[in-house]
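Quick sanity check, phosphoglycerate mutase (2,3-diphosphoglycerate-independent):
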Amino acid sequence: AKLVDAALASGKIWEDEGFNYIKESFDKGTLHLIGLLSDGGVHSRLDQVQLIVKGASERGAKRIRLHILTDGRDVLDGSSVGFIETIEKDLAQLREQGVDARIASGGGRMYVTMDRYENDWSVVKRGWDAQVLGEAPHKFQNALEAVKTLRAEPKANDQYLPPFVIVDESGKSVGPIVDGDAVVTFNFRADRMVMLAKALEFPDFDKFDRVRVPKIKYAGMLQYDGELKLPSKYLVSPPLIERTSGEYLVKNGVRTFACSETVKFGHVTFFWNGNRSGYFDETREEYVEIPSDSGITFNEQPKMKALEIAERTRDAILSGKFDQVRINLPNGDM
């Protein structure tokens, strides 16, 4: 977040390669912004999105579409309504200035787009269908009406809102992503953007049928995976994190075991090692990922994989092969 704040404050974000790459589409295409609409500051921040929208419109973007994901996890459930009202005010001002700026689609973060560690690709597909294809089971004239209506359903909450698209009077989606458009995923945190980034960027992507793959200019807010160089273009340069404790211990001969289930496996490996995939030294490290339950919400199966993690950890300790054992039991968080 600090890196993005600094780049916005200094204006460097507008001078760097990433923005100038997507800017090439402004003349004839639409700028699409996809991400978590929230002031939680964990994955994204509303004020940064506002500055990106404003800055892009001042630098030639004539048509802007937002594809929003509601939060309710890092912030209070129901706060989505206020965030939408805030951004809609900005978009209305831009429309007065002749910029065609609107919200085009949406959905709840845990049900649409923001899956992580390849736990459930159907989550990303729901987002793809709404954002790229302009197709969703729910259609509304505006986002405020969409969220208020969907939240009124029994057991509904911001995290799990179903996907929706905004349509015009004739029922046509106002903002599918098409050839010649530019796309920015505005989350700064990597873990819940990597899967969408793969779908947007990889030509040989096969995790679900994309139906239509538009020729776009795509940039992330930051680079989400340094090993995969994903995405290849980004608005803010990533920090180089060296000599993390994981690397330091391994280089000093300390043998390490790391284990969690899918939803937190990245926390004891990728994040722990400074946003770096893979081993530092396979002869001194062992990483064990236990597949998380998919297709069921964790509150319905709260035991999750705690026992399996505990068993593997017990075995690792008793094996005598390791000097450090690090695990993440995700139940309390999830």
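Posting the structure with no commentary besides this: Strands lie at 31-36, 63-70, 100-108, 138-140, 164-166, 182-185, 217-220, 256-261, 285-290, 324-328.
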